[in-house]
Write a structure and sequence with these properties.
The chain is mainly beta. The chain has 4 domains: 95 residues, Pnp Oxidase, Chain A (Roll), CATH 2.30.110; 77 residues, Phage tail protein beta-alpha-beta fold, CATH 3.55.50.10; 83 residues, Baseplate protein-like domain - beta roll fold (Phage tail proteins - horseshoe like beta roll fold, Roll); 57 residues. 14% of the residues lie in helices and 48% in strands. The strands form 7 sheets. Strands 1, 2, 3, 4, 5, 6, 7, 17, 18, 24, 25, 26 and 27 form a 13-stranded mixed beta sheet that branches. Strands 11-16-15 form a 3-stranded mixed beta sheet, with helices on one face. The longest helix has 12 residues. The chain is flat and about 65 Å long. The two termini are 30 Å apart. The mean pLDDT is 91.
Length: 327
């Protein structure tokens, strides 16, 4: 059975739509571990004469909105929604670099000292001062005794929260939602993959928790400059130290547990390749089936998906996170 690849890439500049009629390749990187999803669109060298270059650059510019749809036989899925960040022309190649709603949140936010406060309140402050049409979906209830924002952008603030709490932070650009969740909690959908059916190539390795020993230490400095620390995990394992702002020991424990969870299961680590169908996204639960090794079967949290499209067809590279169950 043969399926014909289709794409629809539309730009919106000053209220005017422009459709891309030719394409060499496109790569979309989406991950709950990154603050932003990105897309790189490459035009073929054969059409890159001066007229085409001038035409593209006159219709598309930094800040233009972009929607990328890919699929087979005109059955298209929206794969990316965002904004043009940059257009480069190197070595006779034109690349359109795109980024999701984080593009908007690289703007400055007013200086403030919030105390006491929590992750949701901090994120809401950022949204209110950059684009109040966004909503905040946050179920990570870590609190700070004090959180200071000084000469920072929205990106800087979200990055600090992510680094200190290990939260999964990402945008649903199409619906204008900023998501903040504990690792591996937000559930987007379900999908099945078989080693014998729809996994085309795999670099997955089956590892046991006993071989992934990690010792996590969280250090917090309170308002008086006193340092408190807690340690969890396996004594003698690989040491990870996380420095956070002033927060309670209970919330420090949540941070430590979040950092430790990815090393506490027997299961696969790595990536595998599939076609564009079935659709899989970060936050999905992917069931992996191996008829030769039943003990390896299980359901895993998808943390990242790289989707690529070119003359050879479409491909998804899926990265697994923790094992959720044995299937």
């Amino acid at each position: 059975m043969y399926f014909e690849m289709d794409f629809d890439i539309t730009f919106l500049t000053n209220g005017i739509e422009h459709k891309l009629l030719t394409l060499a390749e496109c790569e979309i990187v989406s991950s709950v571990d990154n603050l932003a999803d990105t897309a790189t669109i490459v035009l073929p060298e054969a059409v890159l004469n001066e007229v085409v270059l001038n035409d593209v650059q006159s219709k598309i510019g930094r800040g233009s909105e972009v929607v990328i749809k890919l699929g087979y036989d005109n059955n298209l899925e929206t794969e990316f929604t965002g904004y043009v960040d940059n257009i480069t022309t190197n070595d006779s190649t034109l690349k359109i670099i795109c980024i999701d709603a984080l593009f908007l949140f690289r703007a400055a936010v007013p200086n403030i000292e919030l105390k006491p406060t929590g992750i949701k309140s901090i994120a809401q402050y950022v949204v209110n001062n950059i684009d109040s049409s966004f909503t905040v979906n946050c179920d990570y209830d870590i609190s700070y005794e004090k959180f200071t924002i000084y000469q920072a952008t929205g990106y800087d603030v979200l990055k600090k929260i992510q680094e200190e709490t290990k939260a999964n932070i990402f945008f649903d650009t199409a619906n204008k939602v900023l998501h903040i969740h504990p690792p591996y909690v937000e559930k987007g959908g379900d999908v099945k993959f078989s080693m014998h059916h729809n996994i085309e190539q795999s670099s997955l390795e089956y590892k046991r928790a006993i071989d992934k020993r990690v010792e996590v230490t969280v250090e917090s400095t309170d308002l008086n400059g006193n340092v408190t620390s807690i340690t969890t995990g396996t004594t003698g394992g690989d040491k990870v130290t996380i420095k956070v702002g002033p927060m309670s020991k209970a919330d420090m424990q949540k941070v430590a547990d979040a950092a430790l969870v990815k090393n506490s299961f027997d299961g696969y680590e790595g990536t595998f390749d599939s076609w564009l169908i079935p659709v899989v996204r970060p936050t999905y639960t992917a069931e992996i089936i191996d008829l030769d090794y039943d003990f390896k079967n299980g359901k895993y949290y998808v943390v990242a998906v790289t989707t690529s499209f070119n003359d050879s067809g479409g491909k998804r590279t899926t990265t697994l996170g923790i094992k959720l169950s044995n299937g």
